[in-house]
Amino acid sequence: MRHEPFQNAPVAENTSVKIRPAELRDLPALLAIYNHAVAHLTALWTDRLEDLDGRRSWLLARRNAGFPVLVAVDGEDQVLGYGSYGWFRPADGYRKTVEHSVYVNPGLQGGGIGTALLKALIDHAKSAGMHVMIAAIDGENGGSIRFHEQHGFAESGRLPQAGTKFGRWLDLVLMTRVLDVGDTPASSMSAKLDA
Ligand SMILES: CC(C)(COP(=O)(O)OP(=O)(O)OC[C@H]1O[C@@H](n2cnc3c(N)ncnc32)[C@H](O)[C@@H]1OP(=O)(O)O)[C@@H](O)C(=O)NCCC(=O)NCCS
After folding, report:
1. Radius of gyration of the chain (CA)
2. pLDDT of the residue at 15
3. How far apart are CA 140 and CA 1, in angstroms?
4. What residues in the chain have per-residue pLDDT under 50?
């Protein structure tokens, strides 16, 4: 589904947006945002609507792995959007690379909420010693592609027709940002030899 340009300025200018870790009480809001994307957007390549148990398992799995699930909330602690990251691929050679996603409540997009979430995720990843962040985006999702460009991500790969939803093929665009220019980490092999 193509993302339409913003039609209004959604969040009142004086609304203060706070970013905090997601709690179990946020699950209904996280579920609603997730299921809206499943039903209406190509931001998520699945047709399977989730339930609260599924979202709870996801949240706890992310937490237990030490990954952030962050929510943006308004002054009354209502969830406006969320963001998270997890491993890009499971092999240990990818241990410094994470894949993230950000979702803002439909109707609240274009008000800076996604920016606040993405900045917090980038800060978290830097603090956790991650080296690269990757967004895997539907090639039709020009809004998300521009959003990531604004935050220093660059297109690094395009996989034609890598997925399908709503009866058509979708291209996967990989956008990456290198977070630091630190030293190459010691290989697990040399770490063992030194021990
Ligand atoms: C993509 C998304 C997370 C961005 O969050 P946001 O709060 O809407 O974005 P912000 O207000 O912080 O930043 C706005 C910038 O993002 C880009 N952008 C985001 N969505 C856009 C849209 N629908 N149309 C045009 N530009 C868009 C623009 O570059 C815009 O900057 P500009 O207003 O100066 O042109 C949000 O729109 C969203 O949840 N979209 C649906 C789900 C999705 O696609 N998630 C990303 C999966 S990888």
Report:
1. 17
2. 63
3. 7
4. 1-14, 190-195
| Domains, the chain | 18-194 (3.40.630.30)
Which pTM was predicted?
0.90
Instruction: Supply 175's token pair.
Output: 């956008």
Amino acid at site 130: M
Q: How far apart are the C-alpha atoms of 191 and 111, rounded to whole Å?
A: 46
pLDDT of residue 190: 47
For ligand 1, residues with CB inside 6 Å are 3, 5-6, 37, 41, 43, 101-104, 109-115, 135, 137, 141, 143-144, 146-147, 150
- CA-nearest residue for atom 4, ligand 1, is 114
Cβ contacts of 105 within 8 Å, gap of 6 or more? 33, 79, 80, 81, 113
Cα of 10 to ligand 1 centre, how many Å? Answer: 12
Helices H, strands E: what count in the chain?
5, 7
Q: What pLDDT does 137 receive?
A: 98
Q: Cα(140) to centroid of ligand 1, in Å?
A: 13
For ligand 1, mutation pick of 40, 109, 115, 118 (most atoms within 8 Å of CB)? 109
**For residues 104 and 151, what is the distance between their CA atoms, to the nearest angstrom?**
16
119, 144, 151, 172: residue to mutate for ligand 1 pocket, most atoms within 8 A of CB: 144
Residues, the chain: 195
Instruction: Report pLDDT for 182.
Output: 67
